[in-house]
Amino acid sequence: MVEKPQGELAEEWVKEFARRNRILSKQDYSLEQVVIAFNNKLQLRLHSARLHVDKFFPFANDWLDLILNDRSLPERSSQQSKIELTHKLLDLVLATDLVVALKDNRGRTQEIAIDVTADPQKEQEKLNTIQGRRKDRDPNKFNRNRNIPEIRESLGINKHLVLVVNPNSPPTYERLLAELHGFANVSTQTRLINLWVPNLEKSRSEQQSEISALMPQELWRKYNQGITTRSDIQRQVAIAQKALQEGLQAKLPDILACDPFVQKVQREQGGEKARKHIQIVIRAVNVKFEASQQPSQAPKREQGRDTQL
């Protein structure tokens, strides 16, 4: 039996989460609507999608040719096949695996497109895509993603996020629902939500290997999640403690160098000041960590004193 890719499993898990919580969008995107919109504003992305879509739907390119030539699809065309092809094109062209609908605190419905991935190393590239930024491999001044925000809005989608989850160790429904409601109530239109954690069934050494493979910026975001303190130094100490607990002593300088405050120090006061600040944080955390590892000693009994209660 061939195992499904992790990305596909992650997508299935998120869709099941949305179904169970009854937040799947009820918006109806017709195949004709999305094909014409993509051809007008995202032509290169549609062309790239056409090179792959026939692997899933052998009839897809014939249907797309009919639509683009303003001709009707065959009368016996399956409605379910049209829906599935529409969803596949939304995925390949608009980086949208699913759309959920939530009400914000003002009672307004927010339609949120979600691009799911199980690979934290792809999160920045995916975030750039939904923000309409140029791909690194594109020639200068050329941007195949530029019109993604415009097309998203034309389809009635208010917001777009990249969601990173591990399908083998997913977050709780409550945690993910809270993150989505939080996004629904802010003015920003795009966001990255990284809820990836190592597989719970793996050994600690395997978990550490997975975590160590992450880039410093990804590790900083991972450890920063859930920290609510407003103090820069307290945040840095909390992040360093989490990294130390997972055996990443050697990576502490690189992780802390991704902190916004440290980056500000480096810009305004230079690299040497930033390094000294990081060293102070690491020294403080090490002292605290070593103290916590010391076995507690029972109080000494005073000679000749009866200690029995």
Number of helices: 14
Largest sheet: 4 strands, mixed
Number of strands: 4
Pick out the low-confidence regions.
298-309
What number is the mean pLDDT?
87
Q: Which quaternary structure do these chains form?
A: single chain
Helical coverage, percent range: 40-55%
Question: What value does the Rg take, in angstroms?
Answer: 25 Å
Strand content: 5-15%
From the N-terminal CA to the C-terminal CA, the straight-line distance is: 67 Å
Structure description:
By secondary structure, the chain is an alpha/beta fold. It folds into 2 domains: 6-194, no CATH class; 204-291, no CATH class. The protein contains 14 helices and 4 strands. It has helices spanning 6-20, 31-41, 43-53, 60-68, 79-94, 123-130, 148-154, 173-184, 204-212, 216-224, 232-245, 252-256, 260-269, 271-293; strands at 98-103, 109-117, 159-164, 190-194. Strands 1-2-3-4 form a 4-stranded mixed β-sheet. The longest helix is centred in the C-terminal third of the chain and has 23 residues, at 271-293. The model is unreliable at 298-309 (pLDDT under 50).
